[in-house]
Every structure is written in C-alpha cells, then in structure tokens.
Amino acid sequence: MRLALLSLFATFPVLAQFRSIEITFQGIGCASCIESLPARVQRMRGVESASVDAARGILKVELAAENRVRLEQVRDAIEQDGTKTVKATVRVKGEVSQVDGKWMLRPAGLPASYEIEGKAPLAGTHVVVGEVTKLRPDSGGTIVIRATRLD
C-alpha cells in the first residue's frame, strides 16, 4: 500500500519552483524593521527560512520542496515599509519553452512566467540560477532572469 502511494505521488509534478531567493535592498528605515523582515517573510506558506544580513542589505530566503511562493511576493514583503529592492539572485525550477522568440520559464503551479536571458536554454524542465536586476518591470512587463547556470 505504501509503495502504491509513493508511486502515485511520483506521477504528479513536484511544486518546487523557487528554491532560493536572495534580494538586495536599501533604504530600510530602522533597526526594528530589519529585525522584523525575516519573520514577515517566514509567515509565507512554503518558506523554510529567512535571514537578513543588515550590513550588506541582503535578505536570504530558502523555500520548501513544495511551495507556491513567487519572487513578487517576497519583493512586496520587503517593500511594504518603504524599503527599496535593488536586485535578486534566484534558483528556480520550471518548464522552459520558446514563446514569441523569447525563452520563458513557467514554474509549475504558479500563475507567473519569467523571461530567461543569458545561457541558451533548451526546452524542457530545468533549474535556472540567475540574477534579476529589474524587480519591477515597466508597464506590467515580464520579470527577466539573467541565467548564469542551467541544471
């Protein structure tokens, strides 16, 4: 019975999209805001851990194997007190395909797609590691991940 359940779950896609996110920020107003930031982010379902390096202005987030956390949610949690997000380094798993001449990454179970630049991807499921330098694209555009590695 246990083996049957394991094989049944193996046929469903794992919802592990964003695996880790490091966001650089600036302009945080007070010490208590810095101290409360990890706790705010850890309240999101799927976040395993969150920590702040206040000296460097970096929030590091590790995510559970099955999660639905989007980069935009973490960005918004940081910016809710007026702090400005600058850039992010991400590790994300999803389906890569070409759409209108652009390579797009669609994490399973998420309502978002991300454009991939840099490393020439192949269609299929990949883990993409890269940097996002524009966390708020102009006029509703797509967030671009500059890929440094594809697994």
Number of helices: 3
Order of helices and strands: HEHEEHEEEEE
Q: How far from one another are the termini?
A: 34 Å
| Major sheet strand order | 4-5-6-8-7
CATH 2nd-level architecture: 2-Layer Sandwich
Average pLDDT, rounded to a whole number, is: 86
Residue stretches low in confidence (pLDDT < 50, at least 5 long) are 1-15
Instruction: Let me know the number of strands.
Output: 8
Features:
5-stranded mixed barrel; 20% helix; 151 residues; Alpha-Beta Plaits; alpha+beta; 3 helices
3D architecture notes:
By secondary structure, this protein is of the alpha+beta class. The chain has a single domain (18-150), classed as Alpha-Beta Plaits. 20% of the residues lie in helices and 42% in strands. It has helices spanning 2-10, 31-42, 71-79, and strands at 18-26, 47-53, 58-63, 84-99, 102-106, 114-118, 124-132, 144-150. Strands 4-5-6-8-7 form a five-stranded mixed barrel. Strand 4 and strand 5 (102-106) form a beta hairpin.
